[in-house]
């Protein structure tokens, strides 16, 4: 047996207990994850898995080698260490690097359990396969991707098919892999909803029982044909196809050089396009919830490792360094932003729970709240019961088996010596006990959070409060505080939100101020980037634009018979951020390979007057651009740029992007 396999077996044996107990603790805390299979891999195997997106087999293509080389260089030059990778499947599969320290492995395992919970319960992952619920079979992704890999491999090795043609075709599809309707449940292209065609005027004339003589005199057949086509064109422009890959699968062609015209796809091409579209839908959930998902995993990892002491005393410094590196990564860090947002949700919910009780005390109103409430006394009253806060073998006798915060069965086992209480004190507590033990407003970093509540929020909470003299004292009111409120609210939100809806709902002025968020932008005047604004609405808008459509431009099919010449008309749904025109042209070249005829792209570009730009640079101020609609056309050989018809420009410009939507709205 090879030495590396012996090392892997030894590492697996060492991790058996942490894997089991992390899963048990996760469930005690209220998580409900898919079961997880853990695999021990070496350094090179980990890099291969990361390159393959977390799976062991993918279709043959050069992109995987490029991804592997990039990951290897990141490790080699210290630009980022891979601790783990986990995929969305049932059971989920997590891969641990055997060279990690035990502290790192424990951190990874707790992180993975939270990811598996998110995969199992978030509606956006449920759009691919069975959604959250009692009968959640999951996507069976590993088997699906392996089938896809084998299918593409067979085509690539088929002597009747040029392998280079297969790779080029995959290249073309991958340029458009994010042009799907990620807000709609996945369905095969031929199962997509059919659009309702606008009624033909002939049908209305039949209903009116118009005579043939009148029809011949008043309604010329050619005119009726033109009207019907015009109305169909308007309908297409008003309701563009957001699933570009599905549209190309139904209507796309390839250019045949011998005949000089577009011909039907080969069967292998339609097959490859369908399976790549399927994979795009599978990975859409991960792309749409990167901040939410990583923040969720980081939050519960920290709760288990730090707050509940899953990291032993001799491991805690190593773990703290691990977490500092993860949260301290530069740029827009999804772990940091996501964890801070989840902590904010927990704190806000717990604060409202406490304030709701305090406003029901005789003599306490929203107007005098900050004057009459003794916050130090409230804080002391909220601190967890000492018997719950510190559990040792010596204090087990103080726990009451009838207390709803205590797991009576586990307590009996602990008293009999069957549970190692020094390592796993949480085993003798219920979820209610753990919630009190880790109530967020009692943590040192959050002790001022209750005091910071604004009068406007107090007024809003009190507006519909009728039993506002329910309690005779503060202590009586605080005895009714539901310590689980924050965690319960977090579980509700993790079911329905994605990054866009979550940021829109919870990135508040208070959050922006407390965490020092700001926007930056490129300055045309100075030629570099600079801080632009600390206004919460600016910060929110900038973040929303980064996460809408995976942070990629939103492009849809507006017409497959543009100008009545079988040309494809794509529209960039402009939201104030312009395209990289040279990159857009490269994508049009690939799109031509999937259409077989000329392709057009509508967009809006910002143009600067050279004289005004020169004046702005001298005065160190930003010039004002002129936004101009353009249509870029590619015919297989050359590019042309045309002025965009004002009516078409109006259809692609978003005057006000509405982010205030939830999954039910998007799925309607």
TrEMBL record:
Which ranges carry the SpoVR protein-like N-terminal domain?
13-353
A family per Pfam: SpoVR_C
Query: Could you tell me which InterPro entries the record lists for this protein?
Result: Spore_V_R, SpoVR-like_C, SpoVR_N
Q: Which residues form the SpoVR-like C-terminal domain?
A: 553-604
Question: Out of the domains of life, which is the source?
Answer: Archaea
Name assigned to this protein: Stage V sporulation protein R
